[in-house]
Task: structure prediction
Amino acid sequence: MSKIQQINRRDFVKLFGLASSGIVLGCNISSDKKGFIPQTEGAFIPNLFVQIQKDGKIILLASRSEMGQGIRTSLASAIADELEADWNYITVKQAVGDAKYGNQNTDGSRSVRTLLLPMRKMGATVKAMLLSAAAKKWEVATTVCKAENHYVINTNNNDKVFFGDLVDEASKIPVPAEETIQLKKVEDFKYIGKTLKSVDLKDFIHGTATYGIDIRIPNMKFAAIARCPVTFGTVKKFTKNKAVKVTGVAGVFELPRLIPPTGKFFGMLGGIAVVADNTWAAFQGKKALDIEWNYGDNYSFDTEKFKEKLTKRIAKKGKLVPGGSGNVNTAFKNSKNIVEATYHVPFLLHAPMEVPNATAWFQGDSIEVWAPVQDPQTARAEIAHFFDVKLENVIVNVTFLGGGFGRKSKSDFVIEAVAISKKINAPVQVVWTREDDVQHSFYHATSAQYLKGSIDENGKVTGWLQRVGFPSIVSSFKPLSDYASGFELGMGFTNTPYKITNFRLESVKAEANLRIGWMRSVVNIQSGFGNNCFIDELAFSAQKDPVEMHLDLIGKDQISKGKSKHPYNSKRMKDVLKNTARKAGWGKKMPENHGLGVAIHYSFYSYVATIVEVSVKNERLKIENIWTTIDCGLALNKDNIINQLEGAAIFGMSIALYGKISVKEGAVAQHNFYDYRMTRMKDIPNIHVDIIDKMHEAPTGVGEPGVPVMAPAICNAIFNATGKRVRSLPISDLGLV
Amino acid sequence: MEKSLSINGKSYTVKVQEEMPLLWAIRDVVGLTGTKFGCGVSQCGACSVLVDGLLTKSCVIPVSFAFGKEIFTIEGTSANLEFLRKAWNDGNVPQCGYCQSGQLIAATSLLDSIKKPTDEDIKTAMSGNICRCGTYTRIRKAIHKAVALKNESR
Ligand code: FES
Ligand code: FES
Result:
């Protein structure tokens, strides 16, 4: 981390508004590893900010987007803890998209992982300055002073002074050097590792949180866009007569597709835009359009046929993925017990409750947008690129996100809003209908896997061959990227917790005919499904207990070597599994028609094990109980983590039970929540979450790691209850739900 | 056509087309944005409001249906809603928060009609509201808690 500095008056007014007073500290944290999307890097400019005002209020500028994961609260709690602040004085302000805030891309479950320490140091620095100010005031040594619950206390005589009353004096004190800053001992944490309510809770329960779709600007218009049902199809011709007659419709025009340069950005699909006085008129106008499309090459795409094609490809030898070991063929030759299975997961959709939307105001050489974006910097850079304005003249205001799950890290909907605002010369809000969201997303890729394993006479797995094919996310940035990339295979295929002497991974070709994107836990969804279902099959064939089988495959206690800040530790993997098994009463006798299934997964550096109890009666599946244990290192905000894991269980249930986007003649066949179904209150089990707290370990991912275990644990439980294997998702295809 | 809409006890004069769904009249014409859009086809409950006390998916009801009636939204307040809010707060229910306006309105309607709902009642009453973040178990718990808080307050 670079130096912490005081911010000059001009800059902090820009950041916190005119009424600002007090101390504002900024510091620069080294930006964490970027994905393959290049991001604009700033020169040294502080990127984390904390302000303490005369009235004692402490304001933190949150650099990451809030989409339900509680990040605004988590970051604030780290500062407040080191600062010995009273939680009630904390407010959080959202930062706009700017490289000066470091990497703001809110994905990969990494915000806490990368920001905890810098946040703590910020808090500790402010505290040190307040202590010095008080010491000066009382003319005592700093060591005599201590901070407690928003006061500095003179330990000699118990005099105390309120933080706010020290601000003037403290702002004159030079910022202490980083080396002199002392952080609290883990044992002394007051907020970190405890439970804090979301700083935004009050707004959420009063309907006063402003999401993207709630932005209102004087004289703004609303717009809807009709997009070609087939990905990348274009407008052949259209008639607007009926649409312009709809009351409230102000304009109808074509928006050409914006194709992003190779390797970065998302562009926009284009289509016919309908601008109106209100959202409903825009939707009605869109319905009244008559459009003939040029469907283009993707017209022939059909997910049923694609599934057959992938299944054929994985039946044959594929491209070897480096990192294997031993020789699977010898293992197979020497074994009398060979197990083979093929698994499928369909295309999946994020469907955040708030549809994609953005408000933009194009004003010639400057552009301002308000949008629910996970990655405001990419949105900003992309706007500058496509509309030829200087980056510094683009302002991206980040609103609350009504769910993101990866969908809102793509800025296509923001670009649409800017394009329309430019055309009509007025502020405009583009709102997607739910049907637009279902049919024009960046989908989680469909996948097929073939697995072959061998077992020796002691029930030990001796060989493991896995062939996988799924369209790559890279295809959205580089057309014709037909094989899974290394970073994708690194999510549960090349980094499994299992130690197998003879291991071989192959990848097969899988072309993309839809826009592919990342969705909560990404490739771990299919790797977790294939790995865990297959281990269950191996255990059955070896007549071994599935939990024992997992423990065997994880092997002896071992910490991986290498430079990683978060080395893999096999003991932690086993511990979460053992804990879950204990909590679930694994091994107990089950009521008739009930079954238990287990799955484990290691992702985003966190360890998760889940056991699911199902019942299947009269061909109806019911999920009765879910037990999940996570080890995510230091558990920053406990109840928030539990909430995330509960949510991940529900999200994973939706994938397992209902998740399926299918395509016919190039067009997505689903429309809305009636045919892209979600887990509802009527479906829910009891969910029991355990955290194995490692206060002395670095914090690791929380938002995503709970998802990949769900589908396989459910399917394994169905097998345990009924003797039937589910190898192809979703379960609703079997008529069980 | 100028008409008057009564929302949370306050009267608003609006110029709308009769067939505009109540949701958009509330959000885009009146300007109260606490009531949310999620699907537009009565599938998710994000747009839930009470019309003369009846739970209504405002995305599929024309605004004309509400003329002369009393509309209750998340911006409003009622005894049951306040107990629910307290319970939502205590149980740290929301994640992204987006569905919670609709969830709270649906739960208010439930408590308005059933004093002490069972899990089964909650299942029936709340299954029209989707929470993509998956806060259902907390919602269920919070509804029971709201009932407990209400009884304590007597
Ligand atoms: S928006 Fe009305 S039910 Fe979904
Ligand atoms: S809290 Fe996000 S959809 Fe319910």
Residues 2-72 of chain B form a domain with the Ubiquitin-like (UB roll) fold (CATH 3.10.20.30). Chain B has a mean pLDDT of 97.
